[in-house]
Design goal:
single chain, 393 residues, alpha/beta, TIM Barrel, two-stranded antiparallel sheet, 10 strands, globular, binds D-gluconic acid, binds manganese (II) ion
Length: 393
């Protein structure tokens, strides 16, 4: 038991991070008022450090309220920095709030009003400066209001061009300043707009391929966002990793086809959470494990810290399950048998294209009946995985 306690105890080297807006969420929703008082960012830093987190992230307005004077900004930043220095917590990521103020009612970078687009650039430039000042190496772009309820006014061709212009502009700015910063785009299908632009990881990957300075632009996929759409989050993460574009990740949980829930990591879809953790750990991903989630609205401040502890603890439990998966002789035996029976060194199975290979592939004969009759043993394998996850192996 003691050993387990240590195994699942979060430590800074695990790189767990939370947003100020996550633990600071007051529980306000479309139907009800806040149920918890706003948290002082310094208190969040102290509590997160105490719980074993590595870092804290913020939107510009989470730290420096919208409309603060320059002197107020400097005072807030100095006090926050002091808390970081005192606790050792770092700020790996920062982002801009381009969705709360009424000016963003029809979007920021894709607003139909050209002055709003210019204001969004100004706000983001300042927020990038703030993030870099506090040490951020990743800058997230979540297009909260970039979308529409109706396409009667703006079309998506125009909006996509504006979105591209903004990211090109800001990546040039970051480079000109000599900042050591990478951008991570965060797709989401809907909420708060009826439909958002760049709704999924796939859409965002295709968009990145059209940008200037692609090498500094990647993704911040979120568990809840792909799941709301009914998509498979581990698949999205896998494709992002394979493309070299997993720069950051938002971990939480979510029921499919529901409103945006932002549940504690692992609480709803533990099997998918397991496959995400396994992939992150085995792929060499070394970025932050960021929680973009919030405590149930039923909770008081103690519940918030129980929630934060739970997010990190579940990650470490899944990580330990992944280690056991790799060491489980029965599971590994089935995988090895499957791999052996899947092997083929004939033409078409290995190597790339050549005119000779085409001829050789054409000339091959396959025993299609035998190949089609072969079972995969995935039922057996998956049951072992379930038993591992359910704690009986
Ligand atoms: C959401 C988003 C946001 C972003 C955050 C950072 O569904 O509201 O996930 O929480 O991640 O704005 O850019
Ligand atoms: Mn979200
Ligand atoms: Mn998010």
């Amino acid at each position: 038991m003691d050993q387990d306690r240590d195994l699942y105890q979060p430590r800074p080297e695990h790189k767990f991070t939370f947003g100020l807006w996550t633990v600071g969420n007051t529980g306000r929703d479309a139907w009800g008022d806040p149920v918890r008082p706003a948290l002082d960012p310094v208190r969040s830093v102290e509590k997160l450090a105490e719980l074993g987190a590595y870092g804290v992230n913020f939107h510009d307005d989470d730290l420096v309220p919208f409309g603060s004077s320059a002197a107020e900004r400097d005072r807030i930043v100095a006090r926050f920095r002091q808390a970081l220095d005192a606790t050792g917590l770092v700020v790996p990521m920062a982002t801009t709030n381009l969705f709360s103020h009424p000016i963003f009612r029809d979007g920021a970078f894709t607003s139909s009003d050209a002055r709003v687009r210019a204001f969004a650039l100004q706000k983001t430039i300042r927020a990038i400066d703030l993030g870099v000042e506090l040490g951020a190496k990743i800058y997230v772009f979540w297009g909260g209001r970039e979308g529409s309820e109706s396409d009667s006014f703006r079309n998506t061709i125009e909006a996509t061009k504006w979105f591209r212009d903004a990211i090109n502009f800001l990546s040039a700015y970051s480079q000109d300043q000599g900042y050591d910063l990478r951008f991570a785009l965060e797709p989401k299908p809907n909420e708060p707009r009826g439909d958002l632009y760049l709704p999924t990881v796939g859409h965002a990957l295709a968009f990145i391929a059209t940008l200037d300075r692609q090498e500094m632009i990647g993704l911040n996929p979120e568990f809840a966002h792909e799941t709301m759409t009914g998509l498979n989050f581990p698949h999205a993460v896998g494709q992002a990793i394979e493309a070299g574009k997993l720069f950051h990740i938002d971990l939480n949980d979510q029921q499919m086809a529901r409103f945006d829930q932002d549940f504690r990591f692992g609480s709803e879809n533990p099997k998918r959470a397991f496959f995400v953790v396994k992939m992150l750990e085995e792929s060499g991903y070394d970025g932050p494990r960021h929680y973009d989630a919030k405590a149930y609205r039923t909770e008081d401040e103690d519940g918030v810290w129980a929630f934060a502890r739970g997010c990190m603890r579940s990650y470490l439990i899944f990580k330990e399950k992944a280690r056991r998966f790799a060491e489980d002789t029965e599971i590994q035996g089935i995988l090895a048998d499957l791999r052996a029976s899947d092997t083929d060194d004939g033409p078409g199975a290995t190597g790339g294209y050549s005119a000779e290979t085409v001829e050789a592939v054409r000339a091959r004969t396959f025993d299609v009946d035998a190949m089609g009759a072969k079972g995969r043993r995935y039922e057996e394998l998956d049951q072992l995985v379930m038993e591992l996850l359910l704690g009986v192996r």
